[in-house]
Write a structure and sequence with these properties.
216 residues, alpha+beta, 3-stranded antiparallel β-sheet, 12% strand, elongated, disordered C terminus
Length: 216
């Protein structure tokens, strides 16, 4: 069975007792609220972590013209993407050779490497979501739908706590937080350490500390 946006929404509506009442063709006020809520939950859950199931690597298109800002080459950032790329590589098979000297300006990446590959997140259809993530997403969506459907703030708070943990955890607890930890641990060793290796942080005692540019 194909799992699409409408399927996920109807699972969430059923979870809060409303039943499978959503259709892509529905133009009612409630359907519009449901669709808007879907976008908010997608932005929230996909933005919290660099999920491996929506991560991809692609060569970037180099501009024909030489940049006028001092860099040798300019590249158009990949699209569609969920955020700026997580890493830039001169060779996608050598994941520790991260390009560190670059700048981002107006949707462009500038550097002195003639060829650049970008590692970035892109939206994928629910059919391709990790099943455990899909289940946790349904809980989060159900929580966000509790108010527009039932005006029930208590139901919303319970579902969101189940999905993301208590407010003090800032969205990194609950089912989503557990899956974030599992997803990070499941990444290949090279990817786990890719952005952890940096000469600025390697000189710290015991090599401890996060790289200044974050992890992916």
């Amino acid at each position: 069975m194909s799992i699409d946006k409408a399927t996920i929404i109807n699972w969430a509506l059923t979870d809060i007792g409303a039943g499978p009442m959503f259709s892509i063709d529905d133009d009612s006020d409630l359907a519009e609220q449901v669709a808007a809520t879907w976008e908010r939950v997608v932005d929230s859950t996909f933005g919290k972590h660099d999920w491996t199931f929506c991560r991809t690597t692609a060569i970037m298109n180099r501009d024909a013209a030489t940049p006028v800002n001092g860099w040798k080459y300019g590249f158009t950032l990949p699209s569609p993407r969920l955020s700026n790329p997580l890493a830039y590589l001169p060779d996608p098979t050598r994941c520790r050779d991260v390009i560190r000297q670059f700048t981002l300006q107006q949707g462009k990446m500038y550097c002195n490497e003639p060829t650049v590959w970008a590692v970035y997140k892109t939206y994928v259809d629910p059919d391709y979501w990790d099943p455990a993530f899909r289940a946790a997403f349904v809980i989060a969506l159900a929580g966000m739908l509790a108010v527009p459907v039932w005006q029930d703030e208590d139901m919303r708070d319970r579902r969101l706590a189940q999905a993301f943990g208590t407010p003090s955890l800032q969205g990194t607890g609950g089912e989503i937080g557990r899956l974030m930890a599992q997803d990070k641990a499941s990444a290949p060793i090279g990817e786990q350490s890719l952005l952890s290796h940096d000469p600025l942080t390697d000189v710290r005692p015991n090599g401890a500390g996060d790289a200044w540019h974050g992890r992916w």
